[in-house]
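LOG
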Amino acid sequence: MTDQEMDKILRIRTEGTIEILQSSAHYNRYEATPYSVLDILFEFYPLHSTDHLVDFGCGKGRVPIYSAYRFGNVVTGVDLNGRLLQEAFVNLADFRASQKRFRGSIEFEQNTAETYEIQARQNVFYFFNPFSVEVFQTVIRNVLASVDRFERQVDVILYYPTTAFVYFLEEQTPFERFEELPIPMLSTDNEDERILIYRYE
């Protein structure tokens, strides 16, 4: 199934790559995670209704809406760009209107990732290279500080991870690599075309 076909099923519009001038050079362009990649992730890593997923750099809301549609879990999308979030809110309204028995919870928040306050029950954090490694380091430190206050297992999911992200997690944090998922239809000669899952217990 193509991205366009899945968008149509969900009654949302999340396709495309958009270059938008950000207020910070640390933030990258918008590009949605392909549904084929999300299918591989969620086949191996099914979410539970008690999981609270945070998508940093959520853009138009594809990951939050699709994960909540599939698992009925709680999701928060965080993005700095107001224009993208406007589209996310429209997508969310259209999605909810088409789902009479939807059991999940989806919220979007406009904020910088480094100042976003990690909530006590948030336990899964998703990143598709939304910002620089400096911002990523701050976010991960915020996650760890939250775990110190509210003890729980937390997972970090990286799609198309940069070497800098991987090095930081593996060499400078207590997170341990839990799984590596190749993307067969995309990973020809590109070793970055993969999903890495890290866990801190």
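LOG (cont.) second protein
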Amino acid sequence: MTSRTVVADRLRSAVALVGCLLAALGLALVWLARSRVDRPVYVSELGADGEPTAALFEAALLLVVVAGACVAWAGRGVRSVLPGLRAWTVSTSVGAAAGLFLVASQVPCTAGCPLPVGPAATAQDAVHTGAAVVAFAAACVAMLQAASASAGRALRLLSVVCGVAVALIAATGGILSLVGVATAVGGVLELVATSIAVSWLIVFGATTAWGPVRAVAVGAPARGRRTSAQASA
């Protein structure tokens, strides 16, 4: 391994760890914003026009956006082994999710966050909701790609569990919002789905820095690596 490779490897690890820290901070701010609202709300309502938590929520989303960009850059090259999911890398999906969350952070929903199909909805609500929904979908795809990549067993198992959980929980919360039933439960479900997605990003970033995914990303096999002593035996 050349000195240039060592430097590049250390830079990759450092960027991944920065992404982990920013994601953790962003998630903490989301929960802080939620703790300041004493009524049932969906996550997006924390950043709606006129909400006292709007600035805090925007900061939280921007931290997650930068975290996603860092982890996507550090984990580039990780690809699913399945034909359909290997068309693009995990980093591409993570980067797409980060970009869409950036749109959602800069185009908040209007007061009350009306559904984009309702009579009170505006183009602003449609843009925000559309970006957020597709961002969640891209995050789920990233998790499923990581679940079927040549990485460690623990990451693969965690990724498939998180991907399925986020998809089901977020979809359930969205359906409850659409039909206007148990919206308090729907808000909790959306917060849980957000927490799982950001937590997965943290784990993927940490694994990129220290674990098997890092080996895959830099081109070394994730399994079957032998030390020089083993090779000479």
